[in-house]
Design a protein that fits this description.
heterodimer, A: 311 residues, mainly alpha, globular, B: 291 residues
Chain lengths: 311, 291
């Protein structure tokens, strides 16, 4: 009983910020599950992270300048998605360079906007808040917005689910079957931009990347179909977010300053732990069925069997 | 020219920034060739957490940056080959930054310094940084010179490299260590978030000027030098953060490269494709190697 009290101190479930954080975290994890699975299959973690960095800084710079952050992040996210798709060649190497150029431009612009707004309003540390974010700072008023854009992102992914899956695993076959790769790619990138921008604004850039990639990579390791991997990813994402929130709430009594450890630290640690455990579980579970040592090549070329990737 | 641009304390900045720029452009050539943009972005951004940690315990910023970029390098080199590479890079990055957020929450006096560490501050260079910069810069140049052929071959023709007995994991580790060294040199000047722009913008343009990898590397170093000089002058003159100019310069170089590619393809009847573009690289670079 005392242990239960130690983990869930009295008042945790009635705390307003904790409730809002739990709901927002769950919504973000729910969206990140399916979107993240495709991000990992397509090898677009860099793009996912780039959107988080750009929108977290840019969106809040817009806020500091007095423009609605919503306008800021939707504009930046969509412009970024468009730029990456237009510039990006078919090969991953060239796509990464294009993504990097867009990201660098976005970050540079954010530096300027933050500089201009910090000198006029003397808001020190804005850059830190923006990049690292805090899930406890989410107001429940932004909840409808979070749910609305999350639903839109999920709808877009659902709309192109089959061609997206096929073109992610076997682009040649998809093209031969008449899939419009470009259209599918753009639709998916817009969904990615929306969901990442949304989560980066509410929970910070670090958590956004961690929740997009970690649970999805673990889910793909544990499940054999993309649908199940998405379900795993969603479950893992909600679990680690809630556990991280509880731990962060507990940490207000911890040393050194008794002012609480950041949620990002706990959630990221848990994501890493689950990923490592999934790697170990996947390795022992698939050793017999997958003798090929190696990487994701088998998953990309060998039909829909997405589970085993390692040896 | 604004007055004071070449005054005493600015000289340290000019020297250190010039060394850093040439090395960044040279190493950046391989960043683009190997498709390691994400790693080149993740190592400096993760190293920012080290700067926060150093501030917390009162150590030198460069030591913190060095330790954390080494952690990032080792994590990516060790696990990047067994799993999906981009997933490992992303998780290494968020882990380092998660630790960084813990450091930041514990220190209270850090906020002022943070902006310049993220977005750059050329004036932060002191004469104490010159020796470490010179040593790291020289080490990087020697490393690239010694491993030149092995790096090229393992980047463009991994199977051929393996057949020649080049161990890819060793090459990857040395390459990432060079990226880590550039991080330590460049992070205080151009900022943790923009170091990678310096490593991808100039080489992305350079590879369109020449087919020869050695010459492209030299052009890339030169363009990076030009970028940093222009950025320092612009930042000094406008007082805007230097990161803005470095990030914008990368866009300019990239656009120049794309435009050159279009022009070259249109002009010559036999479609001439520089290496690193549209699958033509294997031929040109291995050709240059065997020549």
């Amino acid at each position: 009983m005392s242990l239960l009290h130690a983990v869930f101190p009295p008042g945790i479930f009635s705390s307003g910020p904790v409730q809002a954080a739990a709901v927002v975290g769950a919504v973000v994890a729910l969206v990140c599950g399916p979107v993240g699975v495709f991000t990992v299959i397509r090898g677009q973690s860099f793009a996912g992270h780039a959107f988080a960095d750009i929108t977290a800084t840019g969106g809040s710079a817009a806020f500091l300048l007095g423009v609605s952050p919503l306008v800021g992040f939707v504009t930046l996210g969509l412009a970024g998605a468009g730029a990456m798709e237009v510039l990006g060649a078919d090969r991953r190497r060239d796509r990464d360079v294009a993504t990097g150029v867009v990201l660098g431009a976005g970050l540079g612009l954010s530096a300027l906007l933050l500089y201009l707004s910090t000198t006029t309003e003397t808001t020190t540390g804005a850059a830190v808040t923006v990049l690292f974010g805090s899930i406890f700072a989410v107001s429940s008023a932004s909840l409808p917005l979070v749910i609305g854009f999350g639903a839109l992102a999920l709808f877009l992914v659902g709309l192109v689910y089959r061609p997206l899956l096929l073109s992610s695993i076997n682009p040649e076959l998809a093209a031969a079957q008449g899939t419009r790769l470009r259209l599918v790619g753009i639709t998916y990138t817009v969904a990615l931009a929306l969901s990442v921008a949304l989560s980066a604004l509410t929970i910070g850039a670090i958590l956004s990347t961690a929740l997009l990639i970690g649970p999805a990579a673990a889910g793909l390791r544990l499940a054999r179909s993309p649908g199940r991997a998405a379900a795993w990813a969603t479950g893992i994402g909600v679990g680690v977010t809630w556990a991280g929130i509880v731990l962060a709430y507990d940490s207000y009594t911890w040393p050194p300053a008794q002012q609480g450890w950041p949620v990002s630290f706990f959630v990221v640690s848990l994501v890493l732990l689950v990923y490592v455990l999934a790697q170990l579980a996947g390795r022992s579970g698939h050793r017999a069925s997958s003798p090929t040592p190696g990487t994701d090549i088998s998953a990309r070329t060998g039909g829909t069997n997405l589970g085993p990737q390692g040896g | 020219m604004p007055p004071g641009l070449f005054s005493g304390f600015m000289l340290d900045t000019w020297v250190e920034a010039s060394v850093m720029a040439v090395v960044a452009g040279t190493v950046g050539f391989f960043v683009v060739l190997r498709g390691s943009t994400f790693a080149a972005h993740a190592i400096p951004q993760g190293a920012f957490a080290g700067a926060a940690g150093a501030a917390l315990i009162g150590a030198d910023t460069l030591v913190g940056v060095g330790v954390f970029s080494l952690l990032g390098v080792l994590a990516i080199a060790r696990w990047g080959r067994t799993g999906r590479h981009d997933v490992v890079v992303a998780l290494s990055l968020v882990t380092l930054l998660g630790i960084g957020s813990l450091f930041l929450s514990m220190s209270t006096e850090y906020a002022e310094q943070t902006f310049s560490l993220l977005f750059g501050e050329p004036l932060a260079v002191s004469s104490a940084d010159l020796l470490p910069t010179a040593v790291l810069g020289a080490a990087c140049v020697i490393l690239v010179a010694v491993l030149y052929r092995a790096l090229l071959l393992s980047s463009v023709a991994p199977e051929l490299a393996a057949a020649k007995g080049i161990r890819p994991e060793r090459i990857e580790l040395w390459f990432l260590l060079a990226v880590g060294a550039v991080t330590i040199m460049a992070l205080p000047v151009v900022g943790a978030l923009l170091v990678f722009s310096l490593m991808i913008g100039p080489p992305a343009a350079a590879r369109f000027f020449t087919d020869h990898p050695g010459r492209a590397m030299a052009v890339s170093g030169g363009l990076a030098l030009l970028t940093v000089w222009a950025a320092i002058v612009a930042s000094f003159w406008s007082n805007w953060p230097i990161g803005f100019f470095v990030g914008t310069a990368a866009v300019v170089w990239y656009a120049v490269g794309r435009a050159m590619a279009v022009l070259t393809t249109r002009r010559s009847p036999r479609r001439r494709v520089p290496f690193g573009v549209a699958g033509g690289e294997d031929l040109s670079v291995t050709g240059a190697l065997s020549a």
